[in-house]
Amino acid sequence: MSEGDSIGESVHGKPSVIYRFFTRLGQIYQSWLDKSTPYTAVRWIVTLGLSFIYMIRVYLLQGWYIVTYALGIYHLNLFIAFLSPKVDPSLMEDSDDGPSLPTRQNEEFRPFIRRLPEFKFWHSATKGILVAMACTFFEAFNVPVFWPILVMYFIMLFCITMKRQIKHMIKYRYIPFTHGKRKYKGKEDVGKTFAS
């Protein structure tokens, strides 16, 4: 291999300007993602705002329904992965290696670990909306379809998928949502002190 054959290197062995530019761009992007991690509500509000802008755009342009349908299917798949446990209890039923969800009250509590964490769910959903928004700028993606059929098919698909997911939750007794840690009350302090 001769000098300059590796990816991103120029003839003199230093990284090329383009490689350095995209590396720096990736670092800035990751920095912004890292800074946004603790602000869950703000992130989701921005994503809902983007989806609202996207829906207004589709409504005003009266087209790109197939792109919207694909975005809906993508978001449904993300949501199902968000609701699912990382280790499927139906696969772990027969084997005793690895974590499993408790099925009896006297079993040890193991926290619910999602297959798709919340941050990755938000990040993928936001990227999906931005890609769909970009697709609305190209006429090639404006496939003529009868949109009420797509809406009915999506509603049916959503109901069938959620019914299956809820049955799975009931069968293996897990709830994907928790509201913080359980708080235990100790003895109430009456406020009287003893003076010696």
Automatic annotation (TrEMBL):
Family listed: Belongs to the RER1 family.
Keyword Metal-binding: no
PANTHER family named among the record's database cross-references: PROTEIN RER1
InterPro entries: Rer1
GO biological process, one term: retrograde vesicle-mediated transport, Golgi to endoplasmic reticulum
Record keywords: Membrane, Transmembrane, Transmembrane helix
Record-given protein name: Protein RER1
Residues that span the membrane, as ranges: 41-60, 66-83, 145-162
Gene that specifies this protein: Rer1
Predominant place of localization: membrane
Single GO cellular component term: Golgi membrane
Bilayer topology: Multi-pass membrane protein
Tree of life domain: Eukaryota
Annotated compartments: Membrane
Function noted in UniProt: Involved in the retrieval of endoplasmic reticulum membrane proteins from the early Golgi compartment.
Pfam families xref list: Rer1
